[in-house]
């Protein structure tokens, strides 16, 4: 388990549009040797297979990121994104992607491995794939309470629901009108002052190119309703007492103190739910001195938690970050699955460890959408 290390990133005062609050993250110096850009897919719509018999020919593939790591930190451009026909909430799973979630790109004069190269991956799908595959195999031992389907098919199909960013009221306008700070390499997005997502890239040019890509990302249903029904949030304001100011140097010093106070308050109160948690980090790909990983939270109950993916440098500092806020029900699903797996899917031992009865555990499993895995007598 490890925490997110955002060393090198500085918070700037928030900007507010209705229920949307954006908190800029700025780097004093860009990260050398890694660039990100967006890729347009030109091979037609992706295919979604819900099971062996049902196929949907249209789905939503938000956009692909290309990580380009080199010793000279050469620049990269943004090529756009692609949206195929579809409306309304987007089913995150069960999905079968015709492309790998990560794919090494060859050519362009770069070697196939070593200290330089390029890698294509689907943002957020690394994290969602890790969450949806959580203990996906189901019971490893044939206990009498579990159905044949649970033993032979596991948790398939698992499904979650999310909304595109462009469907979140106010987000489009906020991204269009907000100022991008000099040196900005990331943003923390709040909806009704609930942390919706964190997005970090290695270079300011990358952020400028990918700023609007937040509209193609996925957000939970709760945040959609927060934006739809929540009122405007208060803007960041600060006061400097004039009687203690007698020079421009004192005014500058007072402004810097207020800015630091805002940064400290933000880290403690607003972003604490993301930065204070310890995560189960799984490495997906090595890119020279960088590591592409996805992470899962501890699934502790009654706490806001996030899944996500990172690229970190050799010191473990976050260079790229993208997160997805889980709903309370999604956290409960992860919590129950963790407990069941820890006790070899035995209902009696799991219920005892949780301090509840077997009947209550069976009811919880049913309410979380897994009732079809249990035999009726359970």
List its salient traits:
378 residues; alpha+beta; nine-stranded antiparallel β-sheet; four-stranded antiparallel β-sheet; 10 helices; 26% helix; 25% strand; globular
Would you give an account of this structure?
By secondary structure, the protein is α+β, with helices and mostly antiparallel strands. The protein is 26% helix and 25% strand. It contains ten helices and 18 strands. The protein has helices at 125-132, 148-153, 171-177, 204-210, 221-229, 248-270, 272-275, 328-342, 347-354, 358-370; strands at residues 9-11, 15-17, 20-27, 34-39, 48-49, 55-56, 64-69, 90-93, 102-105, 117-121, 160-164, 184-191, 194-200, 218-219, 280-287, 290-296, 306-312, 318-325. Strands 1, 2, 3, 12, 13, 15, 16, 17 and 18 form a nine-stranded antiparallel β-sheet that branches. α9 crosses α10. It is globular and about 80 Å long. 36% of the residues are buried. The model is unreliable at 43-51, 54-60, 75-99 and 106-113 (pLDDT under 50).
